[in-house]
């Protein structure tokens, strides 16, 4: 038998739909057999307190949580360009075969064999080759792949020798003109000194250079702005290139601005038609001194008087032109010696580099506010 709590059942209604009162006494238990009862699970939303006039509305059904299917890159289609097999520059047989294997990685061998010809251009050299193959070769992917490799093998590429790599390492320059700028590497912008260090690391790795070989030569070829921030020696290429990459781009830009200002100041001194150097060189005579008149003893005068002979005619005295200074032989020799310390370079890359070194040495010795005079000669521009 099943006990039924009548308090949990809906209250009776009258003919006009209004609730009617229920006797406060506890209703008797039902005597209906469990086999005869058609009652099922009662709604849990009804009030469970006897004699309650409040009816709790039914609750909303619980939401059904649906976990979306996880996306995977493995499900993305792999594009395989159909193969011609005619040896053009824009296709490679081994690249095609690898792309086909990637696209068919999850497929059965039968599917790979059945679809292979569909990835060959119709009536192409590759299509004719496949058609002419023995049928036994087409029954196994291993034999078909081996036949393809035999027909379109890997082409031997030109590889640099160790000596060629070493020459490239020593000759790879980081030009001062590009310092502080950026370039695209792998689709990303990096500063030029960082890109140079990465490219140098690749060359060193490919050349199998070990230890500190060539670091000294490479360091000497770097711009002064970079070299001033580096140590004299490094224990490895990794340490050396890491130091180059660690130089601040802000420092490089500020140093380049300072160098540009100095260059403009010096160029103004050189280009001005009335520089002190032009005045000095224009008023300086570097030729031999005029010969002086020989000194002779005058003959004794005969006759009355002091007993001296006639006075020799006076030689005209040479005076320098107004505003022109005449230098002594010692001064001219000293001036020539100072000029010889500044050799004139040709207008080549090496000559311009040497001229920049002369300019830096002049600034270090005399300072930026010094005047160009015969005592402080300035190096001439290359090729002038």
In a nutshell, what does this entry contain?
With 384 residues, the protein is mainly alpha-helical. The protein is 37% helix and 2% strand.
Structure in words:
This protein is mainly alpha-helical and 384 residues long. Helices cover 37% and strands 2% of the residues. It contains 13 helices and two strands; from the N terminus they run H-H-H-H-H-E-E-H-H-H-H-H-H-H-H. It has helices at 93-103, 109-115, 125-131, 141-151, 162-171, 192-207, 215-220, 224-227, 237-245, 249-271, 276-283, 329-340, 349-366, and strands at residues 182-185, 188-191. The protein has a two-stranded antiparallel ribbon. Helix 6 (192-207) packs antiparallel against helix 9 (237-245).
How many beta strands in the DSSP annotation?
A: 2
Output the strand order for the largest sheet.
1-2
Helix content: 25-40%
- Report the total helices: 13
Query: Helices and strands: which structural class?
Result: mainly alpha
Distance from first to last alpha carbon: 124 Å
Task: Describe the global form.
Answer: elongated
**Radius of gyration, in angstroms, nearest whole number:** 51 Å
Mean pLDDT: 76
Q: Stretches where pLDDT falls below 50 for ≥5 residues?
A: 27-72, 303-308
- Beta fraction: under 5%
Order of helices and strands, N to C?
A: HHHHHEEHHHHHHHH
Q: In this structure, how is the largest beta sheet organized?
A: 2 strands, antiparallel
